Amino acid sequence: MRIFLVLGHRAATGPDFSLNDLPGSAGRLDILCRCVNSSFFLSHDLRRDTELYLVLQDRVTVRFVGSGLRHLNPDERSTAALIQRALTAKGRLRGDEELESTPGIFVARRGLRKALEEIQSRVERLFLLHEEGPSLHEAELVPDIGFILSDHLEFSPWELELMRDLPRLSLGPKSLHADHCIIIAHNELDLRYDPEPC
Amino acid sequence: MRIFLVLGHRAATGPDFSLNDLPGSAGRLDILCRCVNSSFFLSHDLRRDTELYLVLQDRVTVRFVGSGLRHLNPDERSTAALIQRALTAKGRLRGDEELESTPGIFVARRGLRKALEEIQSRVERLFLLHEEGPSLHEAELVPDIGFILSDHLEFSPWELELMRDLPRLSLGPKSLHADHCIIIAHNELDLRYDPEPC
């Protein structure tokens, strides 16, 4: 089980955005769509052992569950359309319940704190991917693992305070986009825990 | 200098496609747009030492030059619009000349053979990224290096014949999308040749 959480600091929390303008009106939803791609796509297959939490403005969480996903395509636009459907379904939510908007995609009125609690109960170790941490490539990892990432904006002081106990890992000397970080983490885990060609 | 070449087997070679349907009418141009993203984007910066050749149906080559790129954004749609402008400019080409359609983006009526000749004259070593090769992570690499990749389709017998002398490298036990391979190759090169944080 691999879980990624990406913070979308300005991402739309409602469905009123244009699929033709994901970077603008949707608040850099393009980044989050690429994180969906990075989390799940293999060549002609999906990573069924992976989940992705997109936490939008600390108010809404859209959760992608690899084992249940259908109708997911690798391009940004069609992924954004699935997120838009989740944000439309959000209108039917009561309290902090979670609702499956399309197969394998869930939406809830939950923020970072709740998502962290949930992930920590489900993986053996949870890391913050951060430029200041030691190298992932040399770190002790485990197969049941989680990673927290941020979109184009830095982690806020409040977020860092909430996650002050999480160990940090970095990926290399360059500062990278979140979706690129997910690819590198997956590859490191593949090399360690899934050495046979599939 | 790092050079990537990606074969777009069915990608549009003319500008008559919809930006709203990159996977369909544009012949999986979405994949090639993500390869542009993977090749060049760092967080708040571009990889100026990188070039990317997109070879479309072995008839047209769109070349992205990191040192000259302007107006490049990470989302698929805006990148596809730049490729569309290159394919419109193609109409003004004579013979096999190359034309700069927007800053840092060049178009020519050239196929794989010509692109390979050009790349081989510019890098010290050129590799085919292929599932059957030995691991990139354990291979002897050089800073001036090139990699050939394919889109969602396998290399054709003709392409493999043309590149029969190129050494092969693989990236791990999973079969990955081309854009994901580029990320992993960049990371390995960053770790070896650019160990200082930038």
How would you summarize the topology of this molecule?
The structure is a homodimer of 198-residue chains.
Chain A: E1 2-8, H1 29-40, E2 41-42, E3 45-46, E4 50-56, E5 60-65, H2 76-89, E6 98-102, E7 105-108, H3 112-120, E8 125-129, E9 145-150, H4 157-162, E10 168-169, H5 178-193
Parallel strand pairs in A: 1-4, 1-9, 8-9, 8-10
Antiparallel strand pairs in A: 2-3, 4-5, 5-7, 6-7
What's a quick, concise take on this entry?
Chain A is α/β, with parallel strands linked by helices and 198 residues long. Helices cover 29% and strands 23% of the residues of chain A.
Q: What would your notes on this structure say?
A:
2 copies of one chain form a homodimer. With 198 residues, chain A is of the alpha/beta class. Helix content of chain A is 29%, strand content 23%. Chain A is built from 5 helices and 10 strands. Chain A has helices at residues 29-40, 76-89, 112-120, 157-162, 178-193; strands at 2-8, 41-42, 45-46, 50-56, 60-65, 98-102, 105-108, 125-129, 145-150, 168-169. In chain A, the strands form 2 sheets. Chain A has an 8-stranded mixed β-sheet with strand order 6-7-5-4-1-9-8-10, sandwiched between helices. In chain A, β4 (50-56) and β5 form a beta hairpin. In chain A, α1 crosses α2 and α1 packs parallel to α5 (178-193). The radius of gyration of chain A is 16 Å and the shape is globular. The two termini of chain A are 17 Å apart. The interface between A and B is large, with 42 and 42 residues.
